[in-house]
Design goal:
Blueprint lengths: L1 E5 L7 H11 L4 E7 L18 E5 L2 E4 L3 H12 L6 E8 L11 H11 L3 E7 L12 H16 L7 E7 L10 E3 L10 E7 L5 E7 L11 H6 L3 E7 L5 H7 L15
Parallel strand pairs: 1-2, 1-5, 2-4, 5-6, 6-7, 8-11
Antiparallel strand pairs: 3-4, 7-11, 9-10
Helix pairs in contact: 1-4, 2-3
């Protein structure tokens, strides 16, 4: 099995090292194509207004001056002699659950693999908090990911699906369960901008999260991570809200309505 690895934390990230160890537990044909610098929060962004440059670090290992999506596109179409059988994206430093998945570069890397018709999995390791001194429990993802991935690959996947794996902020010996979950949603007020002033008296902003604790619904990825379980969520890119489609078909269709002229 040929495996392609990418991430959004960059080619030098500890999580990418962990992912490579996970991949090598599954195969000895492992390729790495990751952003040269961190691309967190870039979602499915692609680079259109400047050239992409590829640095070949060693055999089967490349750094790209672009996003995770750029990396997967280049690897599949140009850098690898044959298409991979599996794309693994991560292991992200911090979970990607709830609405995180809509702007996560980690999930985006997996989505691009899916767009090429390749089975793809995003992996993220939850953190206590985002500070440089906080060390993630990479050993937890490494302990459980190979077995979960093997089990997933034994199953038939629906078209257009990627798997989103999140590991709780616990050492392996304290993780007792894995749960298949749905995507949850947090309070939208958690995201905000912090205003600061530079040395010339000009305002600038940092995007931030308040991180309030909530009682999330049972069965969601949010609840699973809160309660120390591994979360496995099948995701797809179709954003159509089918209930609204059915409702709107009752009032729209056929000849378009004419504009109302002012009387």
């Amino acid at each position: 099995m040929r495996i392609l690895l990418t991430n959004d934390d960059g080619i030098g990230a500890e999580g990418l090292d962990a992912l490579e160890r996970i991949a090598r537990a599954l195969s000895d044909d492992v390729w790495v194509c990751a952003p040269a610098v961190e691309q967190s929060g870039k979602g499915r962004g692609i680079t259109l207004t400047e050239p992409l440059r590829v640095h070949r670090i060693e055999d089967k290992r490349f750094a790209v001056t672009g996003t995770p999506t750029d990396c997967v596109v280049l690897a599949v179409n140009d850098l690898m002699p044959e298409r991979p059988d599996l794309v693994l994206s991560g292991v992200n430093r911090g979970h990607n659950i709830g609405e995180d998945v809509s702007y996560s570069g980690t999930v985006a890397g997996a989505l691009q693999g899916m767009a090429f018709g390749i089975r793809s999995i995003a992996l993220s390791q939850s953190l206590e908090r985002f500070h440089d001194e906080v060390v993630a429990h990479w050993e937890t993802a490494e302990a459980f990911a190979p077995g979960i991935i093997r089990r997933l690959l034994e199953q038939k996947w629906q078209p257009g699906v990627v798997m989103n794996l999140n590991f709780p902020n616990l050492p392996p010996e304290l993780v007792k369960e894995v749960e298949v979950t749905t995507q949850g949603f947090r309070d939208v007020g958690e995201m905000h901008a912090v205003r600061r002033t530079d040395l010339r008296g000009r305002d600038y902003y940092w995007m931030s999260f308040r991180g309030h604790r909530h009682e999330h619904p049972a069965g969601t990825d949010l609840r699973a991570i809160d309660e120390g379980r591994i979360s496995v969520t099948p995701l797809h890119i179709d954003l159509t809200h089918m209930a609204s489609v059915h409702d709107l078909k009752k009032v729209l269709g056929g000849a378009p309505p004419k504009s109302v002229e002012a009387g």
